[in-house]
Amino acid sequence: MPGEVLLETRGLTKDFGGLRAVDRVDLRVEAGTIHALIGPNGAGKSTLFNLIGGSLRPTAGRIFYRGRDITDLPPHRRAHLGIGRAYQLIHVFPSLSVLENVRLAAQALGSDNFCFWVPAARLQRYLDQAWAVLHEIGMAELADLPARALPHGHRRWLEIAMLLAQEPQLMLLDEPAAGMALDQIPRLIRLIEEIHRRGGRTILLIEHKIDLAMRLAHRVTVLHHGRVLAEGTPEEIARNEAVQQAYLGERAWTPSSN
Ligand SMILES: Nc1ncnc2c1ncn2[C@@H]1O[C@H](COP(=O)(O)OP(=O)(O)O)[C@@H](O)[C@H]1O
Ligand SMILES: [Mg+2]
Question: Each residue of 208-229: pLDDT tens digit?
């Protein structure tokens, strides 16, 4: 439904000791959009993702998904509702093949994740799903390679493949271009556009590279010192004086950007 708010945070706040990393954030992500979250290093972007995914509990505020209050749900319950968070590399089994890793990601959200005996037909379904995803993202020829043998840039692709295998409605991508060779970035952009267009998925994307976020996103929210500094279309954000200042300040004080 166009205009439907899929994800909403109200007054979301996270303190780490005396540091307020996320400060009363009101975020509304509309269904079917690509929504970018940008901001200088340390702005609180990843912390906000961790709150949405459920790996961190907020100090204050609430989170709603399809109008339902999910603030107190553990991460796996949120995943079952359709909130998909890109795997950190720690979840990748290095000695298993690329295909096996993607199959396990698909299976993890199926009902068989704790069963020793899984009916063969269902295993086959997870395997088919894994193949389909690997074809979709152009990794089929790497399917039999052990995950540990993947070149560094390809590990990000594996993470995205594992996320896609879970068929989330809301995809949370935290700096998917980080660690990728520059010549792979156009392919990443095409893939994200393709995932969005074909699957009708909603994508919440953290991106440090502003130009990438601006190219992909329908809406952009800018975080600075844990607060929402600005929210709007990419054109509005590009013209925003306060946003330019925030990024200029970063360039002056944190030359080692990543
Ligand atoms: N687990 C943690 N414990 C203490 N401080 C943290 C923790 N995670 C993040 N921070 C701090 O919170 C602030 C926001 O960090 P983060 O959300 O990673 O920012 P971003 O992703 O925008 O670069 C930073 O000052 C960071 O040092
Ligand atoms: Mg971060």
Answer: 888 888 899 999 999 999 999 9
- Residue 223's DSSP bridge partners are 228
Q: Identity (one letter) of the amino acid at 77? A: R
Compute, in degrees rounded to 10, the torsion defined by CA atoms 125, 164, 25, 29.
-90
- Provide the 3-class DSSP secondary structure of residue 70: coil
Check if 208 has its Cβ closer than 6 Å to any atom of ligand 1.
no
243 or 146, higher pLDDT = 146
State the burial class of residue 185 (Cβ atoms within 10 Å of its Cβ: 0-12, 13-18, 19+): middle
Domain 1-82+169-258 carries which CATH code? 3.40.50.300
Beta-bridge mates of residue 228: 223
Given a cut of 50, is residue 129 above it in pLDDT? yes
Return all residues near 59 (Cβ < 8 A) that are at least 6 apart. Answer: 13, 14, 15
Phi-psi region of 187 (alpha: psi -120 to 50; beta: other; left: phi over 0): alpha
Domain coordinates in residue numbering, the chain: 1-82+169-258, 87-167
Going from the Cα of 258 to the center of ligand 2, the distance in angstroms, rounded, reads 9
The token pair at 199 is 């699957």
Task: Calculate how far, in angstroms, residue 134's C-alpha sits from the geometric centre of ligand 1.
Answer: 33
* Nearest alpha carbon to residue 27 among 258, 237, 219: 219
Q: Which residues are registered as beta bridge partners of 30?
A: 5
Please state the atom number of ligand 1 nearest to the C-alpha of residue 49: 17
Position 248 pLDDT exceeds 50: yes
